[in-house]
Amino acid sequence: MTLKAENISGVILAGGENKRFDGINKSNLIIGGSSIISRIVNIISDIFPEIIIVTNTPEEFHAFNNYKIVRDLFLKVGPLGGIHSAIKASSKESVFVFAGDMPFIDKEMILNQIEYFSFCSADAVIPRVKDNDEPLHAIYRNSILCSLDKYLSQNNKYATRDFLIKMNIDYMTLPETEKTKRAFTNINTFDDVKKIQ
Q: In the chain, at which end, N or C, are there fewer CB atoms within 10 A of the end residue's CB?
């Protein structure tokens, strides 16, 4: 199959402290018979020539050793640390970052976002549905690495949005539909898992 994103690495953020799940990595939760990370990999493996998994527990992902598995270089700084490590590890020009707790990502939406990104010069393309932004279903240019490295070294605010306000962001507005709501569903509690099952 022809690659759809030759210059973009697909990134799965499979870190996090998972305090609400008694230390169980959310990426390994089983939804519909498959782990969330398996579901994500199955969707993105024929889109991206390079897949990077960011996790501080690589021993939990030995089944994915054919992909790049990297640790956070900045610890306990949230998703920004994962984005930073992914960009450092990427051999491409950009990274498409996916939260590791999104079991229903949609291939068509991903391809549309890649196409949108190809026509803009922003530092990142982030989907927006009404007032909700999705920075963990976003494409970032690797050229932000120096700014991100400096930000993580000098700040004690690690919310992704606090960093992004300093960047040139193109927000890709999407309609609020069942398809978009499903694609951006993420798992926060065991109750979420029960509802989805």
A: N
Instruction: Give CA–CA dist 135/57, Å, rounded.
Output: 23
By residue count, the chain amounts to: 197
Rg (CA), the chain: 16
What is the chain's pLDDT, residue by residue, as a tens digit (197 residues)?
A: 334 689 999 999 997 665 556 667 899 998 989 999 999 999 999 999 999 999 999 999 999 999 999 999 999 999 999 999 999 999 999 999 999 999 999 999 999 999 999 999 999 999 999 999 999 999 999 999 999 999 999 988 899 999 999 899 999 999 999 999 999 999 877 676 667 76
- Asked if residue 97 lies in contact with residue 136, where contact means CB atoms within 8 angstroms, the answer is yes
* Residue recorded with tokens 């196409």: 115
**166 inside domain:** yes
Chain-centroid distance, C-alpha 17? 16
- Identify whether 2 is part of a domain: no
Number of domains in the chain: 1
Q: Cβ–Cβ contacts within 10 Å for residue 33, how many?
A: 7
Which residue range forms the structural domain that includes residue 21? 8-196
